Amino acid sequence: MKPHRRKKLTIILFIAAGLSVAVGLSLYALSSSIDLFFTPTQIAAGEATDGQRIRIGGMVKEGSVVRSEDSLDVEFIATDYTHDLVVRYDGILPDLFREGQGVVVEGAVTNGTFIASRVLAKHDENYMSVEVKAAMDAAEAARALPAGAANGS
Amino acid sequence: MRQKQRERCQQVLRMVPELGHFSLILSFCLCVILGTLPLVGASTGNRLWIGLARPLTAGVFVFLTLSLLVLGYSFITDDFSVRFVAQHSNTLLPIQYKITAVWGGHEGSFLFWTWMLAGWMLAVSIFSKAMPDDFVARVLGIMGLIGAGYTLFMIATSNPFDRVLPLSPVDGADLNSALQDFGFIIHPPSLYMGYVGFSVVFAFAIAALLSGRLDSAWARWSRPWANTAWAILTIGIALGSWWAYYELGWGGWWAWDPVENPPMINWLLGTALIHSLAVTEKRGVFKSWTVLLAIMAFASSLLGTFITRSGLLTSVHAFASDPTRGVYILGFLGLVVGGSLLLFALRAPLMKSEFGFAAISREVFLLANNILLVVASAAILLGTLYPMVYQAVSGGELISVGPPFFNMIFVPLMAILVVFLAMGAISRWKKTSAQYLIQQLGIVAAASVGLGVLLPLVLTTEFSIGAAIATSLGLWIVFGIVQDIRIKIANKESTLAGLKSLAVSYIGMQIAHLGFATILLGASLTSIYSVEKSVLLQAGEQMDLGDYHFEFGGTEPVTGPNFIADRATFRVFEDGEFMREMYPEKRLYTQSGSPSTEMAIDAGFWRDLFITLGEPRESGAWSMTIYIKPFVRWVWLGAILMALGAVVAVLDKRYRRLKVRDLAKADAQPGGKQNDGLQPASN
To answer: Any alpha helices (H) in chain A, and if so which ranges?
Structure first.
């Protein structure tokens, strides 16, 4: 093998090694940091494993928000108008969190209650996340009932 | 009589938005001509057609400027018959936000984006006197084609001058309250300008492919543009990070949000590109790789546009979704990437380069730099697009990929990059002996690891391995820079004379590397050492965090131009001594009814104090979060240093000194191009 060919080969091997390490690392990282998304109906059907980190989405049910008077605890109901899910959160809610609006929450199910680790805000009050919209659409299709707030805007 | 005149005058003024629409269409037409005649002229040698490139560019710029001014005028005059104005403004909106609301939504921001392209085109047409006219014609022609794609996109799917007639709203819907902030005035322009700037480098690469002129002259012409675009993009991303930090209220400066990622991908590819261009200019190798990177960097900016504007991904930045826009951008992206790669394949034989470097040489370290940066950007792209792909493959199941993924990939890759950085900077072109590297860097390694472990051990109560590694890596870069400069000036009569003899572009490089070290230290140390505490406090109650003591003095109502607010007062004590008062606010924008939190921040070189208000309880108590964030300023300080370094490098004399014929001479004698000032001592 000519020296410059050998050099070229070395470099190609170098690149290939780097790439395969990166791909392996990426796949490993992906497998451990994907959050699945569930709707309240799916949670009610027991599709999510207790304690597994997931995301849920739905509407904040009107009149369901209860704030503790002596701690940061907040409890509210996320609904897709078919099933309700009680969400408990120990923290400060984002600015755009409101009753009757869509919400996406990160956390885990424990004994039928959703313990939230993060409540996600959206920049735009008229904007509905694809997750919430999908949850609404699914619920609507299941019940064929008019869900007035489902369009968000 | 006068009454009649006034009415006629008003009628004419009502037509002004049509003028904007008309000049938009006109600039599309000019872009089409610019994208055809000069390109054809350059390949057939038609001097007249080549000569059209500069005047046409000026025309495109003038008419897009007119369009933009008209849109601005519609905002200032509250012309709510223009749909875009009605959606994003309001009579009560302060004037600075009325003007900047131009980029507050999809249509206007795209017009602004396209105008930026025209600005870069104009700059190329002005600062290209040293280049051959046919090459400039090709560059401007390609940018004209890009401009044609952008303007057509606006006219076809997102016209900012669409009217709501005859029943125009009396008042507008107001600008999104989160955008009514100083950050909104400066972040989008700089980000867009940097983003769009890479289309210049792309156009240079395509022009080089078309003309067959892939030599070090081409690399030399491209470098100032690549550096400038990269510097502005760096600042744009940093401003976005800073804005998110003080406006969004969760104390974070980077979230790996699906729309933060595309600029990051672009930045990483851009970083690879400016390094690869250096090798192509200095050594005439990596040509095909450099061209490919230029194509990828531009494609990633289009992909960013697609992700932001197609509504396919959930994100804080997403504009309202419209599938036709996504399809159009994807089609344009396919056309650009497909066309460029086809041309690339056809011209591949041109790009043969001699393989004149050894296994340990600056070339190899820069190659490693490029591989790591490209891999990092590919991994971020994977994480960003994965939810979309997963949804398509699994039949609608939704997932999200969170920060842990990105950190797990990005942090180790950057750590390896840093190890190579100091080695690459200190080694020589072509061949460096392992012995030389060990001899020069052994002490640097010992000092950085020693201090890196010692400092966290001494200064903090709880030893953190992560902090030790991060400090070691940061010091590795800093000490590496010092050592390299020491070697360079060792033979000079005095230190001062030595420092004066350093090439400007070399100084730029070292400033940028110092900036990188600063970001590395800031990002890791603030992640490790930040503390926060969320509490519910009554007026008069107090709390402790770290060395600080906070007294909550209650809230009072205040009124702004278009909002009402509760303003809280905190008295802050450091180590028991009164330091200052801080005033976080909770605002309610009256027109849109949307609440917004205004943080109170005490910024400092070593640490930030950060208070954000939650909401009041019936008892009168407020929920709030208080943060102490050490070193967080270093993240943005580092970005400023990096951008400064890139700009300093552009000021190097050699980018202005050489005229076309000198370059031709330099190319004719390959030995000649090594002594041009970047590395006086190492050549």
So the answer is: 3-32, 40-44, 130-143
CA–CA gap between residue B353 and residue B23 (Å, rounded): 46
Q: Which residue, among B255, B243, B240, B203, has the nearest Cα to B225 in the 3D structure?
A: B203
Structure confidence at residue B675 (pLDDT): 36
- Contact across the interface for B404 and A92, Cβ inside 8 Å: no
Phi and psi at B531, nearest 5°, equal: -130, 150
Average pLDDT over residues B80-90: 90
> pLDDT of B630-642, one tens digit each?
999 999 999 999 9
CA within 13 Å, CB half, B209:
24
Rounded mean pLDDT of chain B?
A: 87
Number of C-beta neighbours around residue B76 at 10 A: 13
pLDDT given for residue B143 in this prediction: 96
pLDDT top residue among B375 and B660: B375
**Contacts with B397 (C-beta within 8 Å, 6 or more apart), sequence order:** A36, A37, B390, B391
Better-predicted residue by pLDDT, B497 or B190: B190
Check CB contact under 8 Å for A25 and B396. no
Cβ neighbours of B178 in A, within 8 Å: 95, 123-124
Query: What is the identity of the amino acid at B548?
Result: Y
Looking at residue A4, what is its pLDDT? 67
In angstroms, the CA B65 to CA B47 distance is: 28
Rounded CA-CA distance B19/B11 in Å is 13
Q: What are the angstrom distances between the C-alpha of B511 and each of B257, B485, B490, B515, B555?
A: 29, 12, 20, 6, 45
Please answer yes or no on whether A37 and B615 come within 8 Å at the CB atom: no
Cα distances (Å, whole numbers) of residue B618 to A65, B161, B175, B506, B564: 13, 47, 31, 62, 19
- ipTM entry: 0.77
Select from B249, B408, B594 the Cβ nearest to the Cβ of A29: B408
- Residue A147 confidence (pLDDT): 42
Task: Tell me whether residue B411 is exposed, middle or buried, using C-beta atoms within 10 angstroms of its C-beta: 0 to 12, 13 to 18, 19 or more.
Answer: middle
| Residue ranges of domains in chain B | 16-175, 223-298+308-420, 531-632
Sort out which chain A residues have CB atoms less than 8 A from B592's CB and list them.
125
With cut-offs at 50, 70 and 90, classify the pLDDT of residue B676: very low
Using a CB-CB cut-off of 8 Å, the residues of chain B touching A15 are 371
Q: Take residue B202 and report the two structure tokens written for it.
A: 């792309």
Q: Which two tokens stand for residue B22?
A: 């008309």
What residues contact B193, with CB distance under 8 A and at least 6 apart? B116, B119, B120, B229, B232, B236
Rounded distance, CA A103 to CA A86, Å? 13
Cα gap B80→B86, rounded to integer Å: 5
Contact A34 B397 (CB under 8 A): no
* Residues of chain B neighbouring A30 (CB-CB closer than 8 A): 382-383, 386, 401, 405
Q: Check CB contact under 8 Å for B398 and A134.
A: yes
> pLDDT at residue A150 above 60?
no
Could you report the per-residue pLDDT of B15-53, keeping only the tens digit for each?
A: 899 999 999 999 999 999 999 999 999 999 899 999 999
Whole-number Å distance between alpha carbons of B494 and A144: 85
**pLDDT score of B253:** 87
Query: Any chain A CB within 8 A of the CB of B614?
Result: yes
The terminus-to-terminus CA distance of chain B in angstroms comes to 82
Contact B314 A130 (CB under 8 A): yes
pLDDT of residue B473: 95
How many contacts does A have with B, using Cβ atoms within 8 A? 129
H-run or E-run covering B597: strand B594-598
**Reported CATH class of domain A36-151:** mainly beta
Q: Is the dihedral of CA A133, A139, A145, A148 positive or negative?
A: negative
Mean local confidence (pLDDT), A45-68: 87
